[in-house]
Specification:
This protein is α/β, with parallel strands linked by helices. The chain has 2 domains: 98 residues, Spore Coat Polysaccharide Biosynthesis Protein SpsA, Chain A (Alpha-Beta Complex); 131 residues, Spore Coat Polysaccharide Biosynthesis Protein SpsA, Chain A (Alpha-Beta Complex). Strand 4, helix 2 and strand 5 form a beta-alpha-beta unit. Helix 8 packs antiparallel against helix 9. It is globular and about 50 Å long. The C terminus is likely disordered.
């Protein structure tokens, strides 16, 4: 299995730190360095591709990476470059680089669950209650279904052939990932109506893709909330630096901790 780490996203406006979000520091590591270290420990991953600026990688991180691809300004193009750099039809684990709490256990659990199903593409979701208990105050986009409320994880498992066949659909899903109600409408009025009434199930979504687009998609319910926590704003960065990271590392920041809990 190959892993593609996407590290081409621009820096967060207002931080005045880095031109790339992946280079933001968290303690002694960058976010990209953290993800490379975690992914390199996944037993089923043989080679790592990073789509990002080479200057973001320290020497120890370069040694763990098979190929570095210069990024473009387009998320989809970065994904495309990463996927199509993979030789043959090896499975590809695509991982975002802005996952400061990611663990190899979370990734391995996702891959293990994928192995229990036959599908062309696999995507993790995290129950809302579980996520909010783990990271109170963290903002996420949720989808309400009749069998649960979920937020998406920041990785996907697929083969290059799936990406080549469904480029247009993947681009659409990326562009509308923060506006699921518009995305649902693109799949037909009947599908949108069920979505609007919150009567859709996970199985309904998988069946729609199978019938309409002729592929099998598997939704993997993960109990690892760290797959969902990403850095999209200054607020997210503050949250991880001064609240969660502080508590995990045993920093004596009682004043900041109390302020965040108010």
């Amino acid at each position: 299995m190959y892993a593609v780490i996407l590290a081409g996203a621009e820096g967060i406006s207002g931080t005045g730190e880095m031109s790339y979000k992946a280079g933001l520091s968290l303690g002694n590591d960058t976010m990209l360095g953290k993800v490379i270290d975690v992914v390199s420990k996944i037993k089923s991953v043989e080679r790592i591709v990073v789509v990002g600026a080479e200057s973001l990688l320290k020497e120890k991180e370069r040694k763990k990476v098979w190929r570095i691809i210069a990024p473009s300004q387009s998320f989809f193009t970065n994904l495309e470059q990463g996927i199509l750099s993979i030789p043959g039809e090896e499975e590809v684990l695509v991982v975002a680089s802005d996952l400061p709490l990611i663990t190899s256990q979370a990734c391995t659990d996702f891959i293990t669950q994928c192995r229990s199903r036959q599908a062309d593409v696999y995507y993790p979701v995290i129950p809302k209650e579980l996520y909010e208990n783990a990271y109170p105050g963290s903002e996420r986009t949720y989808i309400k279904l009749s069998d649960g409320v979920y937020t998406g994880g920041n990785m996907v498992l697929m083969k290059p052939s799936f990406f080549r066949r469904h480029r247009r659909l993947i681009r659409l899903a990326i562009n509308l990932r923060k506006r699921p109600w518009i995305l649902a409408l693109r799949f037909g009025f009947g599908f949108w109506w069920k979505f609007a009434r919150k009567s859709l199930t996970i199985n309904d979504i998988e069946e729609m893709f199978r019938k309409k687009y002729k592929f099998r998609g598997a939704t993997i319910i993960s109990n690892y909330s760290e797959l969902g926590f990403d850095i999209d704003s200054q607020e997210d960065l503050n949250w991880i630096r001064f609240y969660w990271a502080g508590i995990r590392d045993g920093w004596k920041r009682e004043l900041e901790r109390d302020e965040w809990l108010m």
